[in-house]
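Before a colleague's protein record goes any further, I have to sign it off. Thanks in advance; the entry in question is below:
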Amino acid sequence: MKDKNRILVFSVLLSAVLQVGCSKDERRQEPGLAGGLPVYTGENLRNIFYPLGGIGTGNLLIGGRGNILEFEIFNRAQRDELPPYMTFFSLWYKDGEKESEAMILERRHFDNFTNGFGVPRQQLSGLPRFDEVRWTGAPPFIKLEFEDERVPLDIRLECFSPIIPLDVPYSSIPVGTFTWTVSNPTDRSMEFALAFNISNPLGNLNYRAGKPGHMIRNTAIRDENLSGVYFESLINPSHEDYGNMAVVTDHGKEEIVTAWPLGGWWDDAHLLWSEFSGKGHFPVVTDSIVHGGQQQLVSSILVHGALAPGATDTIKYYLAWMVPNRRLENVQAFGEDEIAGNMAGNYYARGYNDALEVLDFFVKNESELVKYGRKFYDNLAGSSLPGAVIDAAASNVAMLTSNLLSRVDNGDVHAWEGLGLDFGCCPGNCTHVWNYAQTLASLFPSLERNMRETTFLTQTYKSGYQSFRTTFPIGEHHFMNVAADGQMGSIMRVYREWKFSGDSLWLASLWPSVRRALEFAWKGSSGDSREAAWVKEMIPWDPGKQGVLRGDQHNTYDINFFGPNMMTGSLYLGAIMACSEMAAYLGDTGLSREYEELYRHGRDNYDELLWNGSWYTQKIEVIDGLTVPDHLKTVEGNIKYQYGSGCLADQLLGQYLAFNSGMGYLLDTVKVQKSLQSIFGHNFIPSFADFQNVQRVYALNDEGGLVICTWPDGNREQIPFPYAEEAWTGVEYQVAATMIRAGLVEEGLEVTKAVRGRYAGYNRNPYAEIESGFYYSRALSSWAVLLALSGFEYDGVSKSISFNPVFSQEDFSCFWSTGSGWGNYKERELEIELAVDYGNLILNRLGYGQIHPGSMPGVEVNGRSIECTPGHGGSIIFARALELTEGDVLRLVWND
């Protein structure tokens, strides 16, 4: 091995604020692949930022250079211009008799120094750094490799914060770990020091508002296993800024500085670096330090060691935090002054008194947390699926650890659509945006069920009118609008959550509200329901109960469609079909037959009204009793913001949800396939260099993508609906998944690859896809592409699981999850293995699609034969319910 540094950072890192100059070809270079996930280096690191934390806990943002970009632990996005003061890892080493060297453990800054005040010095940007970084990974592990010919050590870092599917408590711990492995590959003895330098972030919050800083205290921590520094804010425990943080190591050879002397100007930086770079040691200071000024207290925790040739040392730092009080953003109240800015507790804080208790819990359970996190990561990253699909599914899991999701003290999930730099964008669990998301439903279904409970038990009124956003805090104040796509999609998602969990008592608790929400389509608003106070005119969407939505249908494009269209129509048909099955299961066979008849009637009507031979169009019309406001009319008197004969990417949105719910085809199979072929042929743009778009820009230059709507016949609406010519990743993934389910595999993969090409690091952050803000929740539809390629379906009611992979069938493997367990599925020419790595799985049936559909395999669990009979279409039926638990492997073998 050469004497060069290869710092492998398994961590979450954040993107550089500054930029690099490089050639056009270098910028367009695609990230390499390793273990199914991209490897980012050079320019591809530029825009990376990754949230290290738990669900609903806030996070540390780690940048692509290995830099700590921000502490986002204060209950909102917090990406201001300046990074945390004096917060970085540093390395000192001495190679035999040579002079010692010291560097910041980050990649060097990107070359674009245009700031009129110089490069920000907060993290000592004027000190040496490494030449290069190689980064790969996804939650819960990110991996980096630093390269520099000057450094003779190999250094690895793994950053981890638990994300374990199904286990919400274990995935909601406010903690992150940085595990450095320092190796000496030379034939010489080496001396080294590694330090974590970090400022107390709790005092400067007030200062950012132009006020004096809060009183804070830094205290040394020393016990049998952990040593470090405890940060506290010495303010009222009910204050929104109240909190604490602990930074410790378990190495056993620590040198702690609770706070460097403040002095004036840059005294603390001079003192820290002169001691570190000169000696590789710090003057130990363990006094408790209290401070209330505007300057920030900087602490250091240093580990010093010696390495014989070929030796290795491991240094782990734990960082935990506790900020228990959340001030809701004013926009979450939707203009209700009485509740604007209310305080709420964070659910994660209920389990701990402070950050020290967080550390205690984490350390006691660390081996188990890492074990399950590793299994999840390995199953996902090691899948045989195409790299772009693994990347899209895995990288977007990072959204769940951003401030996109919060949980208040009663456990309710509050979700934004996306995040701005220091605010949430579009609050209230927006039903028509979260319609697309599949990741949370697959990995943390209990949280997804909570969102359905909020919608149907608190936001759906006596008439069935459903507010498509939830006002927080939940109470007597309500968002005053209804959305056709959100409402019908929410009904389909109740069906999905019921089938995925198998929890029929849960379904029964929501059913009366679900039924009202469906029948609102033809009954409309009523005078004795709560929404009557603000609904002046509400013509039913389906006034003749024909199975067709004709009224004005508010939707995710922030406008109303007038007249029949298949975007809301496919969701309506899916909601009717879902309700038919749910009613039958709950014993109301008469109602079930009524709904089934309405579904069939509606499907035929939509075909007659909208099918043009190649795709489904919109029939623009104004039904009797409906008045179109003047601001929605053109000067010629036409209705603005419609799509008419256009080819809409979302025209089969209900079909997408039906596939993901196990409902199969809602519409004629041939028409679905032709529509998808049309969408790909007309809406997929390989290069946007010559594309004309006056709306928001999410694809540019030679990037590829799928636009929302096109008008292939040339009769484009004079003023089309907003966003029509934009490219939304959430829509692109839903279309790609639907294509793959319908047999258009190559087309679906091409769309997915184009999306991830726009998130290659040099152009956008691969861990925070955008639409209206970063971490845009619609992009959580990316998980559906993984499900489509594996042909995965699960029914927790009938206890049936099936796989029908359409990619790499000769040697296929993928991650799977249900409402009770998860693991890995492998399929080879003559063998299938279903392994349970977490939880349990009860099965009456296993479907395996096209692999030997006509012959019966041998079936065993852990070598024990299992009695079963052949089922239809490539499946087996177990003689009695088969329960698999963690560690069990179900194996099917054909002896041809």
In short: The chain is about 25% helix and 25% strand. The longest helix spans residues 355-381. Residues 54 and 315 are 22 Å apart (CA to CA).
